[in-house]
Specification:
Bound molecules: pyridoxal-5'-phosphate
Shape: globular
Strand order of the largest sheet: 1-2-10-7-8-9
CATH class of the largest domain: Alpha Beta
Order of helices and strands: EHEHEHEHEHHEHEHEHEHHE
Largest sheet: 6 strands, mixed
Number of strands: 10
Radius of gyration: 19 Å
Number of domains: 2
Number of helices: 11
Length: 303
């Protein structure tokens, strides 16, 4: 395994020029994690890096993880395997669709071995029994939980906060916003930010209680009490994970037309949609400065 490192580049923080925002008197910048690497995209890199470093330290040559058929996490892991020189196994919930969808095709092209796991087994994927079989079959591997949802993922995500900058020191309030699914990235960002910031996380699936409890548990493991206040915003999931609504699609089209920033409908689309709606309703007051974290998830063109 080669050193786990991407070229050190500053994550671009892009100020949005949108007359709508000007009218409301709020400043929004987008932290473009989607631009750090074409395939090891966005927050997935931050969630993976410490686990991959551990695998490297322990001399493992293969990393195994779990995800659905549209898992950005599996794709990022596959690309990281190619980039840093290790084997990857993707345990896919349900049947691996053949022909492969573009995401799984890209993962396989990067050398990932795709394995179908029936849904009942998948639910028990962290049981001792299931893992014993996995280790028996695949040998000396490093296992990363589904979605990179681990405390190591939280610690790795803290570095995202280092790229958050405020252009107007006196603007108030300061708000960081992002999409959340497992809460891993949210917990890391909250832990990495100071007390003068609050974090609004748009939940992209149902189940607010579970996510908030998980975030609190992770934060409690950190030596220093985190200072950024945070909340999980419900009501923007359109019925569940990867569900959509005509209003969302319409918003995304308009947003990208105006700002030039690409969105995808599962995460960043819902985050930006909820942000704009809360600006329009006045829930986010005039004078606010907002950093919206673009967590990636956009397949390069031609895929
Ligand atoms: C996986 C993913 C998320 C969710 O991250 P969590 O740490 O699980 O909350 C957000 N945005 C994109 C683009 C993702 O791929």
């Amino acid at each position: 395994m080669r050193q786990i490192k991407l070229p050190e580049t500053q994550v671009p923080l892009q100020r949005l020029h949108d007359p709508l925002l000007q009218t409301r008197g709020v400043a929004v910048s987008v932290l473009r994690l989607d631009l750090i690497h074409p395939w090891i995209s966005g927050n997935k890199w931050f969630k993976l890096r410490l686990s991959l470093e551990q695998a490297r330290r322990e001399g493992r040559h293969t990393v195994l993880s779990f995800g659905g058929a549209w898992s950005n996490h599996l794709l990022a892991l596959a690309a990281a395997g190619r980039e840093f020189g290790f084997g990857t196994i993707g345990m896919v919930r349900g049947e691996v669709p053949r022909p492969l969808n573009p995401l799984l095709q890209a993962a396989e092209d990067f050398g990932m071995t795709l394995v179908s796991v029936d849904r009942a087994s998948y639910r028990n994927k962290l049981s001792a029994e299931f893992l014993r079989d996995v280790y028996a079959e695949w040998g000396d591997i490093h296992v990363i939980p589904e979605g990179g949802a681990s405390f190591q993922g939280v610690l790795g995500s803290m570095a995202i906060a280092d790229s958050v900058q405020w252009s107007e020191p006196l603007a108030s309030p300061r708000i960081v916003t992002l999409a959340t699914a497992t809460g891993t990235t949210l917990a890391g960002v909250v832990a990495g930010l100071g007390a003068d910031v609050s974090v609004d996380a748009t939940l992209v699936l149902k189940g607010e209680d579970r996510i908030s409890a998980q975030v609190r548990d992770w934060l409690a493991l950190l030596p220093r009490r985190p200072h950024a206040a945070w909340q999980v915003l419900q009501g923007w999931h359109c019925g569940g994970y990867a569900r959509s609504a005509p209003e969302l699609v319409q918003f995304m089209r308009q947003f990208t037309e105006t700002t030039g920033v690409p969105l995808e409908p599962v995460y960043s689309g819902k985050m930006m949609w909820s942000l704009y709606a809360r600006i329009a309703s006045g829930e986010i007051p005039e004078g606010a400065e907002i950093v919206a974290i673009h967590t990636g998830g956009i397949l390069p063109r031609g895929h």
